[in-house]
Amino acid sequence: MAVHRVGLVQMRCSADPAGNDERAEAGIREAARLGAKTVCLQELFRSLYFCQEEAVERFDLAEPIPGPTTERYSRLAKEIGVAIILPLFERRAPGVAHNTAVVIDAGGALLGSYRKAHIPDDPLYHEKFYFSPGDTGFRAFRTAHGVVAVLICWDQWFPEAARLAALAGAEIIFYPTAIGWHPREKEEWGERQHDAWRTVQRGHAVANGLYVAAVNRVGHEGPKGGGLEFWGRSFVAGPMGEVIAEAGGEERVLVADCDLGYLETVRRNWPFFRDRRVDAYAGLARRFGEASG
């Protein structure tokens, strides 16, 4: 079976989309030079994380799909022969936008998009103001190098999303991300927050017998003494939860080998899909606290 080498581009962002594109393209080229076959950028990579405040002018950052940005990265994918996962602020219609990831195949073809399903609303994460909930479902995309799924940031906390992506055939789930600390909370809560984030995604890898690759941004964004400190620490975990590659808190192009044959070995010995009780899960469609029956 093939080994699918993946690349994650962990970078700082600025208010200049053109400059962010240049940095992202350089990271993709570096990952390809290191042998990556699929490269994933971080959530909303073309801008600062604008969801820290509610400002209608930020909708000017949204763009159509397909459009100039997808055309640029399609040309790049074709030139260097890698698949690219491209997270964008999608303009669907006037006043309707999504937090979206486009999957571009190694030949440059757009295989499709995933729109973020779970939209948070927390202090400095005012995403419900900007993004309509996704309506694409949890999809898998067959690229030239393997079958991948994409979920986005807040989706990381929901086991249902990972399970449905796995049932669609995913061998690797990519999670483009923008997560960080409120500086005033870092000392008390910081490491527990990071450990929970890392642990839950490793759990998705174990429960579904696949690889998980999470790519986060780095750097402080916002006013001094406030804003968000994005912690980076992008990583790739294997189907037994083992972390096979991990970055620190600096800019980094991270690559890791995903042995697709290993998935068969793990799933034969941990046959979770065989033992699923699909007849017993109807209650998952209920709201929390809603009575059964």
Task: Report what the structure shows.
There is one protein chain. Helix content is 25%, strand content 28%. The strands form four sheets. The protein has a six-stranded mixed β-sheet. It is globular, with a radius of gyration of 18 Å. The chain has 293 residues and is α+β, with helices and mostly antiparallel strands. The protein has helices at 17-33, 68-80, 159-167, 186-208, 260-269, and strands spanning 3-10, 38-41, 83-93, 96-104, 110-115, 121-122, 125-126, 141-142, 147-150, 172-176, 180-181, 211-215, 218-221, 228-231, 235-237, 243-246, 252-259. The longest helix has 23 residues, at 186-208. It has one domain: Nitrilase/N-carbamoyl-D-aminoacid amidohydrolase. The termini are far apart. Strand 9, helix 3 (159-167) and strand 10 form a beta-alpha-beta unit.
| Helix and strand composition category | alpha+beta
**Rg over CA atoms:** 18 Å
Distance between the termini: 46 Å
Task: Please count the helical segments.
Answer: 5
The number of strands is: 17
What are the salient characteristics of this protein?
single chain; 293 residues; alpha+beta; Nitrilase/N-carbamoyl-D-aminoacid amidohydrolase; six-stranded mixed sheet; 5 helices; 17 strands; globular
Short characterization:
It is built from 5 helices and 17 strands. The chain is an alpha+beta fold. The strands form 4 sheets. Strands 5-4-3-2-1-17 form a 6-stranded mixed β-sheet. Strands 8-9-10-12-15-16 form a 6-stranded mixed β-sheet, covered by helices on one side.
